[in-house]
Amino acid sequence: MIEAASTAGVPIPRYAGLSVRAWKAIGFAALLGAAVALPFMVSSYRVFQFNMVLVYAIVLLGLNILTGYNGQISLGHGAFYAIGAYVAAILMEHFGWPYWATLPVAGLACFAFGFLFGLPALRLRGHYLALATFALAVAMPQILKYKHIEHWTGGVQGIVIIKPEAPFGLKITPDQWLYLFTLAIVVVIFVVGWNLLRGRVGRALVAIRDHPIAAEAMGVNSALYKTLTFGVSAMFTGVAGALGAIVIQFVAPDSFTSGLSINFLIGIVIGGIASISGAFYGALFIQFVPNFADQISKAAPWAIYGVFLLAFVYLMPSGVAGFVRLAWMRMRGVRYRRDI
Amino acid sequence: MKSRLILVLGLAASVACSNAMAQKKYGPGATDTEIKIGSTNPYSGPASAYGVIGRAESAYFKMINDQGGINGRKINFISLDDGYSPPRTVEQVRKLVEQDQVLFLAGTLGTPPNSAIHKYVNAKGVPHIFVNTGATKWGDPKNFPWTMGFNINYQAEGHIYAQYILDTKPDAKIAILYQNDDYGKDYVKGLKDGLGDKAAKMVVAEASYEVTDPTIDSQIVTLKASGADTFFNVTTPKFAAQAIRRVYDMGWKPLHILNNVSLSVGSVLTPAGLDKSVGLITAAYYKDPVDPQWQNDPGFKEYAAWFKKYYPEGDIRDAFNVSGYLIAQGVVHVLKACGDDLSRENVMKQMTSIKDLQLPMMLPGIKWNTSSGDYFLIESAQLARFDGKEWVRFGKIIGK
Amino acid sequence: MEAFLHQLLSGLATGGIYASLALALVMIYQSTSHINFAQGEMAMFSTYLAWSLINSGVPYWWAFLLTVAISFVAGVVIERVIIRPVEHAPVLSIITVFIALLVIFNSVAGWIFTYTIKTFPSPFPEQPLFGNRFISSHELGAIGITLAVLVMLFLFFRFTPLGLAMRAAAQNPVSSRLVGVRVGWMLALGWGLAAAVGSVAGVLVAPIVYLEPNMMSGVLLYAFAAALVGGIDNPFGAVLGGFVVGVLENLIGAYLIGTELKLTVALVLIIGVLLVKPTGLFGRVFVTRV
Q: Is-contact B106 B54, C-beta < 8 A?
């Protein structure tokens, strides 16, 4: 929004004969190209790690739509991630579905679940909503272990999934294939998300977050938007959960503790609240920083992780994405105006 | 002139090397000077109480390296934090296997984390040994030839208690408290299988708890109210201490069977109250570091000396350290047996040819035995009763 | 019948545990409008402090008072040093700072004091009161102290100028500043008080559940639930919420669905309460001014 305001009415600046928009397009193309090339340049262990980054990026986009753009704080997205993962695992294990076919089902199941959860959540505000969703995250492992659904969920033992091979006789490893498959889904979901957020819907969400009463007065159906947002957010997270299960090849209640939900929240804060690109920065953080902390100290890895968290919040108060945006604007010589 | 000298020296060295190679065999992670071993442990997160096991292992290998290593090779033990989260275990194990190129994995902790990597390590052909959980699935040589467990398996231990109850109290009414996870459920299954047809009649109440529960008081009240006269306590140290104290304080006096996981005198029975622990029954297989009967035992003295010198930050009362110590000793035993053939195949071969190994911190008479068809390492234990000061062993050693 | 009574009383006893920490949560919410996720770990750390003091020979009550005082100062310092720089940051950034504090306290406690459980002495007699077998003297004493803290807090907020200033600073910082309230210091005092109340909770809880770095993580979940049920801005509500959650949890687990879904059902009930009363049973109703 700052960008839009700062460029309006001013002649569009050009760099080396190209507009900012064109440069951005080139930048995106280059990034995508690099992302496609990545699995062929690094070891398969790294491919696996970056695959998880992509999976987390989808979750963080979903969570950001709800929490960042719409202002409904969720500390329970690990639960939706778990549902997506179990839907995929159960369909593959008990019904022999191919892995790709499980994704839409996981997404739809989570959409329905998120929508239903969004209905009561409408009545809750601020911290009450945060804690109610947290309750969902806390209860999830216990529900997954429940003995009467053990037949489906595998109970405490979980379900082991077989890793998909590359199709069409492609000469690439399963890791590379799964990464590219995930990347394709990431592109689709981010294009959908971007279109959703930059247009009317996005403005409505932000309006509901910042001025709920004014938004209602202007004809935004706040209740519908809020519940639908809950559904869409859960849907993205569910798809990511299914992908995550396929990548990890295993689901178990212990994989989906309340710590996971907290990690997701940390991801959007570190990446940048209400920022699309922030999803990637946040995903990189939650994937790599815990390992880094472990390398620094075996005695107290969590303490190191906590210090990293503090450092990021202090040094980049609006997340990595905000930091990058600021740096980019400085570079272009646009002065940051506080009054916008 | 100088460069030529280096060249000559280099050539000589490479010739020497290739000569040596003729007798030596190396898998990934093994060289003339180093053996790389990988492991995962929860150093962070809610299960970090188990982190001491990894630290004890590292401390033991440090001592071995100070003594010159094994056949001149230093042990490079890479133990990573997985926070007891299966997805992170997968990631860390892939790092160990693919990037760090360890020779094998030893002492990876927890059933869910190990389940997540079970298939992967077997597909890769990486020895996955001394798996630090008691699930039965780690002893399946047909389907998973690269995986071998460390602990006596929970179900087998459950069997031992069932047999004891059938022998001494055939009309017992049993109440069970268990942790709601694979560990708790395996014990319950073992006990019920051991009781056979009588299980349905004898087990009168079951209650579970979650690791996040602050107390287990309500469960104990329920179990006591069932009128049971035998209490099977399948809990981890904190809850075990709570349960022992609560059972005593409520005036319930059942035959109290405590699972081996929590037999530690220092970290369970002392906090619970030694007077309140009198009469507890367990199946023991290693020496408890606080138990007075071992204070002059040479095996324990060796342990205490190691602890003091190499692991001063640890808490000697914590019995978890003993399992780290035993696992590290087991690894050293296998590596010594491997000699100069440090291939993954040979590691597995030596791992499956352990014969009557009596380690100093194991109870007298409890020996390790494995074979290519028998992947269970510790298969025997001895019942013991707590007399207020120490675990008094009774009866013969049960199991193989 | 005896079993039922026993469940009820044991529920009250655990409810007392939840109530004591919920009180600290409400405390900080009242003075800063934030929910402190690190409250439990801070209380745990204070308890280790008390444990160290007692172990070095300081008499129990002196150790108790010293711990409360040190925790108060530590709370003020944390607010001044760690929270102040992000005071105006979005609420999510502040939650992240709380989570950072949580993991730091937890990890450092494990590092310094190891994860072995430790016994913590109780000031109350070992023998249960009136020879009953339902509830120990310590549990009764803990409930008594929690209620006393509650009354003290009530009197403080209701009848002292400082208490009034603190409430004002939390509810409307801008106007408070205009009438001369030093808002920054009020927030710091709020942190100090919450840390002090938390340390009392820790010292009361430790003899029951044993002292270890994860002692408070489970309690915190239930303290949240208690605060939600009772209303997060009402100390009486939170304490009552603690007892309600403790008793309900026991009765549901024992008589309705068994222990395997105890936690889940307790949480479903809480959400149910919130649906009827979105700000808890005794919470202030949101009034939105346009």
A: no
